[in-house]
User: Which sequence fits this backbone?
């Protein structure tokens, strides 16, 4: 269950929304029904675009007047020109991409800044589930069986930070979130986050 | 503004439409190099142009369509092709928008085409009519819009060949198109599409009554050839699923096959009907010229082979729509347009509507499609500062 903030925005999305500069150009990759873009348009006068895989999501977004295309992060990011956006957002989608490394690289090519959130596979419940239960973990934030999960590239917060380093990406900010998307009181890049955070939220920029 | 074509006030809706003569003092230069003047344009309007002239929508009809968008067709008596979308409170809300639709150049419902008299010879144009392009059709539409005193259009929308015109408008007149909705279309006609058109054209040309295109003077009409062309084309507008659902292998007015070549199957009877009713309302030479215009359409070819060049610097808001079961203008064609628009960071929405009705879905009752159009227009209207009726706030 995700907590809904005021203005009908999920708490983790509100957190992302607060980091977006007013009047900026934003691309939301995996934008679902466009609720974040809609909020950013109304409250921050953002020039927003979205990419969404599901037809129901795209229809819902376009029907409310948002500029959203049916497509996916793996195939559609390469078309955009370098520096087309101020901020590129990828919320809870990285783990479902076919080539997360290329996706990240493309995000920071077309955007000056990227905001990425993903479920942390290093969380202690995941570790315990696998170590003691001997089964692939099914939790609130990872609520799929192994055979029907759209999430094909899980990573821990540490894995993610290592990839950012390899790609020469600067991590400007790291925030650890609990399962409801609330901020936890420790550094998002540290050992504690990797063990206790259900999700990680990171602000990245080109080095 | 020179006095070549006096600016008309936008005429109100008339079920029979309007006509205007354009280009007499300023000929329209066609892609083939010929300068044409005058050109008669038949058009229809719905709704009212607002004081700021910011609410005009240009509807572009498809290959065999015309400007009777929401009126009974004067020849067939059938309802207009988008009657479900035009009216107060509908997708194209006539309380809010001013709609324009004109018969295309080369057409046979009032706009200058091969059936008309060539003023230079006093005889029907026939095969002496210049070969026209989608660009030429749009050039004539642009003159009409200018004649109506409208600087820029709130939206240009159309399906199939109408969608080609939308893309041409956006590429050639970027400052005159606030938003564009190309539906079930492509930025170029594919080899398969050209092939189907060629089958239709050869059926017409093979009809002895075509008379090398001079059938009018002989008092004849190549109705058999034109009917076959329509039958072949009609198959491409439907999906296999839609054909099967409608007809299956059902027999027509009989319990068993006749061991002959009559219309045993319902699907045969249906196609024959489609063919025979089409010839009453369409001119064979028009069919040749308009299919050719579609074949020649290739937006990228004219721009160093790079489609994105057609949209460089565009500020138009785009909404690209395709239908999942359309095999005539399949989704990848729309996606190519979307990718080109992304490459110039254009403002674009793209929806592939799930439908099993084939290419014709854009003319049929598809609630998700209509919701998409309504939502996109609503968003565009907000950015355009268009007011809702009865609402004092922009």
Assistant:
């Amino acid at each position: 269950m995700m907590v809904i903030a005021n203005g009908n925005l999920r708490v983790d999305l509100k957190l992302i929304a607060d980091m977006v500069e007013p009047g900026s150009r934003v691309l939301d990759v995996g934008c679902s029904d466009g609720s974040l873009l809609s909020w950013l348009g109304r409250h921050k006068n953002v020039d927003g675009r979205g990419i969404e895989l599901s037809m129901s999501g795209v229809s819902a977004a376009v029907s409310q007047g948002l500029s959203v295309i049916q497509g996916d992060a793996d195939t559609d990011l390469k078309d955009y020109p370098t520096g087309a956006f101020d901020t590129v957002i990828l919320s809870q989608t990285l783990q479902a991409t076919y080539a997360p490394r290329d996706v990240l690289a493309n995000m920071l090519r077309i955007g000056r800044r990227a905001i990425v959130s993903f479920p942390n596979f290093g969380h202690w419940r995941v570790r315990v589930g696998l170590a003691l239960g001997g089964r692939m973990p099914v939790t609130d934030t990872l609520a799929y069986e192994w055979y029907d999960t759209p999430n094909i590239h899980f990573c821990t917060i540490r894995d993610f930070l290592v990839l950012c380093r390899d790609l020469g990406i600067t991590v400007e900010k790291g925030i650890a979130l609990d399962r409801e998307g609330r901020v936890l009181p420790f550094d998002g890049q540290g050992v504690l986050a990797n063990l206790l955070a259900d999700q990680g939220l990171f602000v990245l920029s080109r080095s | 503004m020179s006095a070549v074509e006096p600016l008309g006030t936008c005429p109100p809706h008339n079920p029979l439409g309007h006509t205007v003569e354009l280009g007499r003092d300023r000929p329209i230069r066609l892609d083939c190099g010929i300068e044409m003047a005058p050109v008669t344009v038949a058009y229809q309007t719905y709704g009212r142009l607002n004081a700021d002239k910011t609410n005009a929508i240009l509807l572009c009809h498809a290959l065999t369509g015309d400007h009777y968008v929401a009126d009974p067709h004067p020849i067939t008596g059938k309802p207009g092709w988008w009657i479900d979308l035009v009216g107060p409170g509908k997708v194209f809300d006539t309380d809010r928008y001013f709609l324009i639709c004109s018969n295309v150049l080369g057409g046979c419902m009032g706009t200058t085409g091969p059936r008309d008299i060539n003023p230079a010879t006093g005889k029907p144009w026939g095969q002496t009519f210049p070969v026209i392009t989608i660009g030429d059709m749009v050039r004539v539409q642009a003159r009409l819009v200018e004649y109506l005193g409208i600087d820029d259009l709130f939206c240009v929308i159309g399906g199939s060949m109408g969608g080609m015109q939308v893309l041409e408008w956006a590429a050639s007149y970027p400052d005159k198109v606030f938003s564009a909705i190309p539906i079930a279309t492509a930025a170029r006609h594919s080899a398969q599409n050209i092939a189907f058109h060629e089958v239709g054209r050869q059926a017409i040309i093979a009809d002895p009554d075509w008379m090398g295109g001079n059938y009018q003077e002989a008092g004849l009409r190549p109705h058999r050839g034109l009917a076959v062309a329509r039958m072949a084309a009609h198959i491409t507008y439907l999906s296999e699923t839609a054909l099967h659902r409608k007809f299956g292998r059902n027999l027509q007015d009989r319990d068993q096959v006749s061991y002959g070549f009559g219309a045993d199957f319902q699907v045969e009877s249906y196609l024959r009907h489609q063919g025979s009713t089409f010839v009453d309302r369409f001119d064979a030479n028009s069919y040749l010229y308009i299919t050719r215009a579609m074949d020649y359409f290739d937006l990228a070819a004219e721009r160093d082979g790079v489609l994105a060049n057609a949209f460089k610097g565009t500020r138009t808001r785009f909404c690209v729509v395709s239908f999942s079961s359309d095999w005539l203008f399949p989704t990848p064609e729309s996606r190519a347009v979307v990718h080109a628009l992304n490459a110039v960071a254009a403002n674009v929405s793209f929806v592939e509507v799930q439908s099993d009705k084939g290419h014709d879905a854009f003319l049929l009752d598809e609630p998700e499609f209509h919701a998409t159009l309504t939502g996109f227009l609503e968003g565009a209207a907000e950015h355009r500062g268009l007011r809702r009726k009865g609402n004092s706030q922009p």
